[in-house]
Design a protein that fits this description.
5-stranded mixed beta sheet; mainly beta; 0% helix
């Protein structure tokens, strides 16, 4: 089903942008953080909130950020903390920031930089927070290494606990932390997806020969992940059986850049890409005992319905985020800085 946008537009971002994150720790409202990517201007982080019953997105805080933001993640247990990966003419860095107490005032005070993740010598790609509840560890990934940090935000400190090397693998590009197992992550390379055990900092398994741009764990179903791939759109996998994907969802006409499972409705998935579209999928998989329904490429792997394609965009879409407060809502961010909030309530009856 093709459809334009009927969503709520936030027009406060003045510059190009790639990063948007749900503020999971804000239990009282639908809130997002978005960061800009301007080469020549001072960049910004916007705290965006949905006014209840008003159908309006407002800026609850605008904070200046010194560099281009290439990765932004909100802390899952403290709504005032978030991390960024940034670049400038001098290289790449990563920091954890704290939103000031009086962020609702018209002239917001500066962000407080709690600490830098400064042990990296290669290009930093992303920072990962364990997605479920409070945890004293975070992960940072650069092109060659994975770092596990022990963090103490109250004392503004971070210390490397362990480090894993990618050895002869192609460049590391990103990853995701398993919400069902805080000792396991998935790390993306240029041509594969590798699973790491954080206790040994060794690779445990892999999906080879895949040009993956994003990976996301199903928060409700253990062992299920979604990958966003150049050639195949979205693929669903069972971590116990990686020879073939469970499902292929080939719904984008260009590179698929992001995939996100809904936090509550386990069969709903969003995907977005450089074809200026966001797709909503109903992806049923049977994984209890029978294993994958069919090898990739067979007819059964192509049957999943595309519930809707949101196409009212003029630029590539790199950022999508579900609302943890209201899982029937999601926000998308196109490269031109346009944030759109959409409701999927018309499609929930299909579940």
């Amino acid at each position: 089903m093709q459809g334009g946008s009927t969503g709520i537009v936030y027009g406060g971002l003045k510059y190009q942008a790639r990063c948007i994150a749900d503020v999971r720790a804000d239990a009282g409202s639908t809130t997002f953080l978005a960061g800009t990517l301007s080469l020549k201007e001072e960049n910004e982080v916007h705290l965006i909130r949905l006014l209840p019953g008003e159908n309006e997105l407002v800026c609850d805080g605008l904070f200046y950020h010194p560099n281009e933001i290439w990765d932004l993640k909100s802390c899952p247990f403290d709504h005032r903390l978030f991390s960024t990966v940034y670049t400038s003419g001098e290289g790449y860095g990563a920091s954890v920031w704290k939103i000031p107490e009086l962020y609702g005032q018209s002239n917001s005070p500066q962000l407080e930089e709690l600490f830098k993740l400064d042990e990296h010598t290669a290009k930093i790609r992303c920072v990962l927070w364990w997605p479920l509840g409070k945890h004293d560890k975070i992960i940072s990934i650069d092109e060659r290494n994975i770092f596990l940090w022990n963090i103490d935000p109250s004392n503004k400190s971070a210390k490397v606990v362990s480090q894993g090397s990618a050895d002869m693998l192609p460049n590391l590009r990103g990853g995701a932390w398993d919400p069902h197992n805080h000792n396991s992550i998935a790390a993306i390379t240029d041509s594969s997806l590798h699973f790491w055990d954080l206790r040994s900092m060794k690779r445990s398994n892999a999906i080879e020969h895949a040009h993956i741009r994003d990976v996301d764990y199903n928060p409700k179903k253990q062992n299920i992940i979604a990958t966003a791939e150049d050639e195949f759109g979205i693929r669903l996998w069972d971590l116990r059986m990686l020879k073939h994907p469970l499902k292929d969802l080939p719904g984008h006409s260009h590179w698929t850049w992001a995939a996100r499972h809904n936090p509550e409705y386990d069969e709903l998935i969003l995907s977005a890409g450089t074809d200026s579209a966001v797709n909503l999928w109903l992806a049923k998989v049977g994984t209890d005992e029978s294993g994958p329904e069919s090898p990739s490429g067979s007819p059964n792997s192509q049957e999943e319905p595309l519930l809707n394609s949101y196409t009212d965009y003029e630029d590539s879409i790199y950022g999508i985020a579900w609302s943890s407060h209201d899982p029937s809502l999601f926000a998308s961010l196109s490269y031109d800085g346009r944030v759109v909030l959409e409701s999927i309530k018309p499609y929930l009856q299909r579940k």
